[in-house]
Amino acid sequence: MAQKRRLEKILDWLQVHHEINAEDIITQFNVSRDTARRDLVKLEEEGKILRVKGGAVLASQSTALSPYRDRGMPRYKEEIARKAAAYVREHDHIFFDTSTTVELTARLMANKEITAVTNSIDIFQILSERDGYITYLTGGKFNKFHRNFTSFHTAGEVTKYKTDVLFLGACGLGMEGLTSPDEGEAYVKKSMIQSAKKVILLADHTKFNKEFLHQVCDLSQIDLIITDQTPPKQMEQKLRSLHIELMVTEKERGR
């Protein structure tokens, strides 16, 4: 199949499924990984998609306020990101974890003079194009699927920085804390938490009561959770007992 036709099919897929990754392209069109990558690069260059953690989504051709809805990104993630962006202060030193909601936060921040550190090349690209930003990208083993660095080396790199704030993404959030399915990612998140004065967890409702193999941190190590829905009652009670601040965008919207 010619590339032009394949790109049309990829866009058709995105209209239905909202997100696609290299594995989908390889399977659906029987092409190599390099070809799948070139297809995504071509579509991004044409402004038709935006590559995010885990693959690619449709890009908006309309206003700056709606791209994530138009490309299949849930509205509730944008609301979480907007609240998170409001916590950025002039001259802050900030860690940006790899996460679609954290990436949205980086996009939605007002221009301020900050120093940023991230292990995500997508977030690094966003921040490095902003005036007044000093941006650092950690090294280590590169994960092609998530487009970030996650390894013991990366965790060591993270400890070289001390920041005011960490915007942390969530894989699974349970009564025992935050967990991840990937060992390297868990170690990097741990290092970020230890190196930040304030930990802000961005966790939508789909992350509640999920547990994975690798422990990232206890609930007590989180200062603020920004989410779209009130957590299950037992978890909400535990967060309150630990004096963890909870911001629920669903409630904020209703005010």
UniProtKB/TrEMBL annotation:
Name of the protein in question: DeoR/GlpR family DNA-binding transcription regulator
InterPro entries in the record: Carb_Metab_HTH_regulators, DeoR-like_C, DeoR_HTH, NagB/RpiA_transferase-like, Tscrpt_reg_HTH_DeoR_CS, WH-like_DNA-bd_sf, WH_DNA-bd_sf
Key words of the record: DNA-binding, Transcription, Transcription regulation
Pfam families (UniProt xref): DeoRC, HTH_DeoR
Domain of life: Bacteria
Record Gene3D superfamilies: 3.40.50.1360, Winged helix-like DNA-binding domain superfamily/Winged helix DNA-binding domain (1.10.10.10)
The organism of origin for this protein: Fictibacillus terranigra
Residue ranges constituting the HTH deoR-type domain according to the UniProt record: 3-58
Keyword hit for Cytoplasm: no
